[in-house]
Specification:
Blueprint (H helix, E strand, L loop, with lengths): L1 H23 L14 H11 L1 H16 L1
């Protein structure tokens, strides 16, 4: 029974590995247009341009994590 569980876990690992690989390394010759700026990118740019705001957010996150 333990052997079947290990085989199932290995299968899940292979599947996850394939999903990650295909998402990070798209096939060559793929002529898709570059991705549009996402909200995440915009937020990151704002935080990088305003270190004080980033610091305040980090402090709030730490306080929330403790409670």
């Amino acid at each position: 029974m333990k052997e079947n569980k290990n085989e199932a876990l290995e299968s899940e690992k292979r599947t996850l590995s394939l999903l990650v690989e295909t998402s990070f390394y798209p096939t060559a010759g793929n002529n898709e247009s570059p991705p549009q700026r996402t909200e995440d990118t915009k937020i990151l740019e704002v935080l990088q341009s305003n270190p004080a705001l980033a610091s305040q957010i980090m402090q709030l996150l730490q306080v929330c994590a403790v409670t």
